[in-house]
Amino acid sequence: MCNIKKIWLALEIGNSQLHWALFNGEILDFTWDTEYLPESVISQLAQCQTLNNLLLAIFPLHQRTEVQREQKEILAEAFFSSPPLFLASVVPSQTTLWQTYPNIRVITLDQIPLRGVYPTLGIDRALALWGAGKTWGFPMLVIDAGTALTFTGADDNQCLVGGAILPGLGLQIATLGQKTGQLPLVETPNSASLPTRFALNTPEAIQSGIIYTLIAGIKDFIEAWWCLFPEGKIAIKGGDRTLLFNYLQTLYPAIASHLIVELNLTFWGMREIAMS
Ligand SMILES: Nc1ncnc2c1ncn2[C@@H]1O[C@H](COP(=O)(O)OP(=O)(O)O)[C@@H](O)[C@H]1O
Ligand SMILES: CC(C)(COP(=O)(O)O)[C@@H](O)C(=O)NCCC(=O)O
Ligand SMILES: [K+]
């Protein structure tokens, strides 16, 4: 039986979309993604009288039967105050919008016990690294294949080693389409079959260039990580994790076999903060 008092929401605001999790105490019940919500919807959340109404407001229409099925027990129950919403955002304008939520808990870098962080380190990177390290151990390197692709590592002392930031898969494709005179906007590849390396048409040349250099770059960072920490662990998250992992598996199976593929790393980090 679900205890409604223990319900809390986690919201990670990325540069492409919102990532949500519904927790019951330490237990992650389920997760979903949405687009950014209109300001009018956000400001109405305070008026929701039940969790059912709240979830319906923040859940995309086409997925509503799913939330209703999974949350039958919770949905029946009423509550009179908004559940805590732990927020980790790397989009300041979005952070501002969510300040109107009555029980908002904005997570800041100083709440994460990771050592040696620099002031402008992305909160998503710090949380994902903390969540991964606390779950699987340190040293840990997190690869986030999101809007930006990031590498973020910490050593055995839970101290930030550092990392790197580059445009993610979608951004690389979009930039070529938008900032050039005659390159098309190609589809994001969605199958694990590798593009032709030496392509004889423009879309395939773009796909080849982006995919092979991304995979080569990821491999290079992983090898550099293992030079520093031969026993170091590696986890990969983000919207493009599966695609990139599948390519890595085809090209470098020995490397891929060491990767932890886990969508919810940031939520594990948020749970550490919320429960402490
Ligand atoms: N519904 C979606 N909206 C946006 N990006 C998506 C979606 N589904 C998959 N993606 C892929 O995920 C990447 C964004 O990753 P994600 O982790 O969602 O980003 P962020 O956390 O930065 O918002 C994009 O490059 C895109 O290829
Ligand atoms: C690097 C990021 C843009 C990644 O954002 P995302 O792709 O997850 O939306 C974000 O973590 C950020 O704004 N970081 C601040 C700079 C830094 O981490 O050094
Ligand atoms: K992210």
TrEMBL record:
Protein location: Cytoplasm
Similarity comment: Belongs to the type III pantothenate kinase family.
Gene Ontology MF: a single term: ATP binding
Binding-site residues, K(+): D144
Alphabetical list of InterPro entries matching this protein: ATPase_NBD (IPR043129), Type_III_PanK (IPR004619)
Active-site residues, Swiss-Prot/TrEMBL: D124
Alphabetically ordered keywords of this record: ATP-binding, Coenzyme A biosynthesis, Cytoplasm, Kinase, Metal-binding, Nucleotide-binding, Potassium, Transferase
GO CC list: cytoplasm
Binding residue positions for ATP: E12, I13, G14, N15, S16, Q17, L18, H19, T147
Record: residues binding substrate: Y118, G122, I123, D124, R125, T202
Cited HAMAP family: Pantothen_kinase_3
Chief place where the protein resides: cytoplasm
EC numbers for this chain: 2.7.1.33
Top EC class of this enzyme: transferase
Natural source organism: Dendronalium phyllosphericum CENA369
Catalytic activity: (R)-pantothenate + ATP = (R)-4'-phosphopantothenate + ADP + H(+)
Record has Chloroplast as a keyword: no
Name of this protein: Type III pantothenate kinase
A single GO BP: coenzyme A biosynthetic process
Cofactor(s) annotated in UniProt: NH4(+); K(+)
Cofactor note text: A monovalent cation. Ammonium or potassium.
